[in-house]
Amino acid sequence: MPDQQAVAMRILLNGEPRDLVGPLSVAGLLQQLGLDGRTVAVELNRKVVKRVQYGATLIGDASEVEIVAFVGGGSGRGSELS
User: Fold this and answer.
1) Interval 7-49: pLDDT, tens
2) CATH for the stretch 7-69
3) What are phi and psi of 29, to 5 degrees?
4) Residue 41 and residue 7: Cα distance in Å, rounded?
5) 40-44 long-range contacts, Cβ below 8 Å, gap at least 24?
6) I need a labelling partner for 70 at 20 to 30 A (CA). Which of 5, 26, 40, 56 fits?
7) Is the entire prediction scored with pTM above 0.85?
8) Is residue 70 within 8 Å of 35, Cβ to Cβ?
9) Whole-angstrom Cα distance, residue 37 to residue 28?
């Protein structure tokens, strides 16, 4: 497998421009951002990326990436709206 050369690229990350050095996988981006892949959902160019594909899914120049973190909450006591 030939060595891949680093290239500058710009993506939209949660709607904000971000400059990165690629090639970069979804897993690599999450690592750079300090995010645990088990606690987020990732959408790449309007398609949800399955967690098992994070390492194999490459982000290209001008890609749109949305990352949503799961947030726990609630009291665990059931509904209090009644």
Assistant:
1) 999 999 999 999 999 899 999 999 999 999 999 999 999 999 9
2) 3.10.20.30
3) -65, -45
4) 26
5) 40/67, 40/68, 40/69, 40/70, 41/67, 41/68, 41/70, 42/66, 42/67, 42/68, 43/67, 43/68
6) 56
7) no
8) no
9) 10
